């Protein structure tokens, strides 16, 4: 009784929230929007903005403050004496405080190249998120069509129940008039109870699947939701259009940007600087007094020899690009193999459907004959139920194969990326 109450409460809860209709494309959109991984789009964007701002600070003036007090064991002294002139030696204790300003004048495009690397890296990171979200599509497909299959199974059970209820009335009338055995109705009533059990099983399985799909798309879904059968149009385009291919291309662009950055590292850099100070001594080492002073100038730095480090880095990047090309080749090969397997599966299920239709027509004829025989007391209710169940199973097989065909075609479309 407790389990039944829990089941009823869960049904009411699921029916109280969520939408009544849901399409496969809506599920895709909700996964892309609500799955926790999608939050990283904005995280990477914020991080990238900060990284680029840090790089661009290289173009701003750099201000440094420095202070020191020293005591040294010896100082400069003149080796000769000048008559009438007294030249004091510097103090052994010396003090200095300076403020220096350095301004980049020319960096050979290094900062711009570094910013470009970050921009391409952001696109690659966000595309990788898209790839991972895209891979959830097949999980959504499986859940979505499993729920549709349960909907179809329940509809078939409804039809079977309706037919049994109608036949039960006829049987009771036959018993009343002595045409049928007194227990003939009990067999049909037992079969109706079995149908109620099957309802419970279907509903509980549907609840489980809906809860899983609801968690995946982060959206409340009603238990009586009506999932729409998607229309799968045949595609004449044989080209694979998966986000993985875009990711491979962005990774190559990232390498190209890194190559440009490496090329800029050894470019000459021109820096302007100015230093103002206060200390004892100042610039005049022979004046033992606190004084202010300043120095301004330009500084050029050019690494003209790096022991072939730049060439080795470029060779390493070239190998990385070859690895990406190889990964792309493997991905394309495996995808085409998967597409071939799915096409074979589609053809097989299509053949099954044609056989199912033939079997159903035969089962209908057999059941019609059994109905007449039951009415005339030639066969028992058990024999009739056997034939009714055979028809139900045939119709169930057809329904299952139709849903499997839709799933196979949808997975084919998902694998292809169109």
Structural account:
The protein starts with a helix and ends with a helix. The chain has one domain (20-67, 88-416): Outer membrane efflux proteins (OEP). Helix 5 (137-176) runs antiparallel to helix 9 (381-416). The strands form two sheets. Strands 2-3-5-6 form a four-stranded antiparallel beta sheet, with no helix packed on it. A two-stranded parallel ribbon has the order 1-4. 64% of the residues lie in helices and 14% in strands. The chain has 418 residues and is an alpha+beta fold. The protein is built from nine helices and six strands. Pfam families: OEP. Keywords: Cell outer membrane, Membrane, Transmembrane, Transmembrane beta strand, Transport.
Please outline the helices and strands.
Blueprint: H1 2-16, E1 19-22, H2 24-34, H3 40-56, E2 62-71, E3 93-106, H4 110-134, H5 137-176, H6 184-217, E4 221-227, H7 243-265, E5 269-280, E6 291-301, H8 309-375, H9 381-416
Parallel strand pairs: 1-4
Antiparallel strand pairs: 2-3, 3-5, 5-6
Helix pairs in contact: 2-5, 3-4, 4-7, 5-6, 5-9, 7-8, 8-9
Family: Belongs to the outer membrane factor (OMF) (TC 1.B.17) family.
GO molecular function, one term: efflux transmembrane transporter activity
Pfam families: OEP
């Amino acid at each position: 009784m407790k389990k039944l109450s829990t089941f009823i409460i869960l049904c009411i809860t699921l029916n109280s929230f969520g939408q009544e209709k849901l399409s496969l494309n809506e599920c895709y959109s909700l996964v892309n929007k609500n799955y926790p991984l999608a939050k990283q789009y904005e995280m990477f964007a914020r991080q990238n903005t900060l990284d680029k701002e840090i790089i661009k600070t290289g173009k701003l003036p750099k201000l440094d403050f420095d202070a020191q007090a020293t005591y040294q064991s010896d100082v400069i002294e003149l080796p000769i004496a000048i008559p009438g002139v007294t030249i004091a030696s510097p103090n052994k204790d010396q003090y200095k405080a300076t403020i220096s300003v350095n301004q980049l004048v020319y960096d050979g495009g290094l900062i711009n190249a570094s910013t470009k690397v970050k921009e391409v890296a952001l696109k690659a990171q966000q595309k990788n998120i898209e790839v991972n979200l895209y891979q959830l599509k097949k999980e959504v497909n499986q859940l979505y069509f499993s729920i549709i299959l349960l909907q179809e199974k329940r509809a078939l059970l409804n039809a079977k129940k309706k037919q049994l209820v109608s036949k039960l009335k006829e049987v009771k009338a036959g018993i009343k008039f002595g045409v049928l055995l007194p227990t003939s109705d009990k067999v049909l009533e037992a079969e109706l109870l079995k149908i109620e059990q099957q309802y419970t099983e279907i509903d509980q399985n549907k609840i489980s699947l809906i809860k899983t799909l609801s968690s995946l798309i982060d959206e409340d879904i009603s238990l009586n939701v009506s999932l729409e059968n998607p229309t799968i149009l045949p595609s004449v385009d044989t080209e694979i259009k998966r986000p993985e291919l875009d990711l491979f291309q962005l990774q190559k662009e990232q390498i190209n940007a890194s190559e440009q950055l490496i090329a800029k590292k050894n470019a000459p850099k021109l820096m302007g600087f100015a230093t103002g100070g206060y200390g004892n001594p100042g610039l005049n080492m022979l004046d033992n007094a606190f004084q202010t002073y300043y120095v301004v100038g330009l500084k050029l730095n050019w690494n003209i020899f790096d022991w072939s480090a730049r060439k080795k880095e470029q060779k390493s990047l070239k190998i990385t690009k070859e690895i990406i090309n190889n990964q792309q080749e493997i991905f394309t090969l495996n995808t085409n193999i998967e597409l071939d397997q799915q096409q074979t599966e589609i053809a097989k299920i299509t053949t099954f459907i044609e056989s199912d239709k033939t079997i159903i027509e035969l089962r209908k004829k057999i059941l019609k004959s059994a109905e007449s025989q039951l009415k005339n007391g030639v066969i028992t209710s058990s024999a009739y139920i056997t034939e009714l169940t055979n028809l139900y199973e045939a119709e169930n097989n057809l329904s299952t194969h139709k849903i499997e065909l839709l799933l196979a075609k949808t997975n084919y479309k998902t694998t292809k990326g169109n």
